[in-house]
Amino acid sequence: MVTSKQEIRRRIIDLLKQQKEDQRLSKSRAIAEQVLKLQEFQKAKTILFYASFAGEVDTFDLMKKALDLDKDVVLPCVLPDAQALELRRIRDLDNDLEYGPYNIQQPKKEETQRIEPARLDLVIVPGVAFDRSNNRLGRGAGYYDRFLTDLSFRIPSVGLAFDFQMIERVPIDLHDVPVNRVIFA
Hey, which CATH number is domain 5-124+141-184, 3.40.1390.20, 3.30.300.30, 1.10.3720.10, 3.40.50.10420? Predict the structure, then answer.
């Protein structure tokens, strides 16, 4: 039986909300350990992350580790009018971020440097659900699908998920873009 994207989103978002915080952080640490071991991560100089929110896999510790390893940490700014993401390099997680659209933390434009997508070496992608074929279901606004469509195929993309976000099959449309790999715990 095929379940609609909206039904899957609702079910998984409910599970994200129900997950206990200590479990979320423990699984997030296990996922971060796997990411740190990836050859793509180790070789990367410039990495696009996402600012986790609403029960997602925590990315802040991973960004701190990347900064400690002298990697360039990049986060997106959501541009609702253009329905696009603008990439900006951050150097300080405590001072370079502010809350933007959808109540997600994003770089302060006046204190961060704009980065062109071609400079990226690795992209860490959020998702509500993923499947074994690396198909991804986002929150429905299409920002990452549009971004990934224009991204060079040479730049690897990695989705982060909890085990319950891995489903049998993500329903896909022509505009949906899979990631290269999904790390989950």
Answer: 3.40.50.10420
